[in-house]
Design goal:
380 residues, alpha/beta, Spore Coat Polysaccharide Biosynthesis Protein SpsA, Chain A, 3-stranded antiparallel β-sheet
Length: 380
């Protein structure tokens, strides 16, 4: 299918879309189709590496992580995609974190990287993945802040692919003349954070990292200000790799307010399972760990094409008259890679490693914690 001229430069997996669209028209890909048929198994305590407390901050683990950093074997990837629908419709990465201050999600993430690079005298290659909705304002912002002085040879921006959205009955939005006036961000979507895996390959970023001697990549959401690169957690990932893992997942103890993925056993393998995939009304008490979407990958894991599932996500947008319009968009989940490659699960401290900011209310309610993170990141 032909896309709008304004969106045509972006990568489009047309064969996947055609297959998924046909399945929706046949009546498939309903919300219940996303769910596992039976509750997944609970993890054993022995399957989790506990990084809470002070013990893991010292000794061989720290030294191992520090050596990997100083030898240039570690890179960072920041997920700055999405549809720019929150925070007043702007790209979240460019939003000021504190009233009266210029510090943003992206600048703080980059300050954390720059500070670490100075401390350990290393270059940390940094990849920022945008969506078509966040690319332009985010690129301009990165140029304005000069990438917080990260070396030009260590900077890389990539853009994830796009997927057309559908009406709830399966008709393609872009083919509906009544919706011609709607912006691209209503007609198309970014296909979820699972697209990170294919974007890293399709953009040539795997080769770019390989040329720089990188062997491991820390991936985190732009809005999780706690997911900084630290030698201690890196050391735990390296230990897991020595035991055969290709991916390490940071998880925290689940609270009653957490909504999203848990860690459970799918078949014979511990894996990330998103909430909408769990059977309806499932008892969550056996699943004590919550996925933070902070993952450590070996470069070999990123080279492999994991057979991720596509999920039909039912949402709403505003139509040309401002009325609510039910739509379907297709997404993949990056955490599903844990179903296909050996993975390790790291229990980390919520207060220091998991500080997600999802709404403007979070900015207000968490202002003290945010200010502390910003000041630490900018300290010299």
């Amino acid at each position: 299918m032909a896309l709008r001229d304004s969106i045509r430069q972006h990568r489009f997996m047309s064969a996947d879309f055609a297959r998924l669209h046909a399945e929706v028209l046949r009546g498939g890909m309903q919300p219940d189709d996303n769910r596992l048929s039976t509750p997944p198994g609970a993890l054993e305590a022995s399957e989790v590496v506990d990084l809470c407390g002070e013990a893991h901050l010292r000794g061989e683990r720290h030294a191992r992580g520090l050596e990997a950093l100083t030898s240039g074997r570690v890179a960072i990837a920041v997920l700055n995609g999405g549809m720019a629908m929150r925070f007043g419709g702007g790209a979240k990465g460019t939003v000021p974190l504190l009233e009266g201050r210029d510090d943003t999600f992206l600048s703080t993430k980059l300050h954390q990287i720059s500070r670490l690079a100075r401390e350990v005298d290393a270059v940390v290659p940094t990849v920022v993945m945008h969506s078509f909705a966040t690319q332009a304002p985010s690129h301009e912002h990165l140029e304005t802040i000069g990438w917080i002085d990260l070396p030009s040879e260590a900077r890389r921006e990539v853009v994830q692919s796009i997927m057309p959205r559908l009406h709830a009955d399966g008709r393609i939005l872009q083919d509906d003349p009544a919706l011609d006036a709607l912006p691209d961000t209503s007609i198309y979507s970014a296909p979820g954070h699972g697209d990170f895996l294919q974007t890293m390959r399709a953009s040539g970023t795997i080769e770019w990292l390989t040329e720089r001697g990188v062997e491991h990549v820390l991936m985190s959401n732009v809005d999780n200000l706690g997911a900084a690169l630290t030698p201690e957690v890196l050391g735990a990932h390296l230990e897991a790799v020595e035991r055969g893992a290709k991916v390490s997942v940071e998880a925290v103890e689940r609270t009653s307010t957490d909504k999203g993925g848990c860690i459970a056993r799918v078949g014979e393998r511990p894996a990330i399972v998103e909430g909408f995939r769990l059977p309806a009304a499932v008892d969550m008490s056996p699943y004590t760990l919550f996925n933070t979407n902070t993952l450590w990958f070996t470069l070999d894991a990123l080279r492999e094409a994991a057979p991720l599932d596509w999920f039909a996500v039912h949402r709403t947008i505003a139509d040309a008259a401002g009325e609510t319009l039910p739509i379907i968009q297709f997404e993949q989940l990056v955490g599903q890679i844990t179903e296909f490659v050996p993975s390790c699960f790291l229990r980390v401290d919520r207060a220091s490693r998991f500080v997600p900011i999802k709404t403007r209310d979070d900015l207000r309610d968490m202002s003290a914690a945010i200010a502390s993170i910003v000041e630490t990141a900018k300290s010299r």
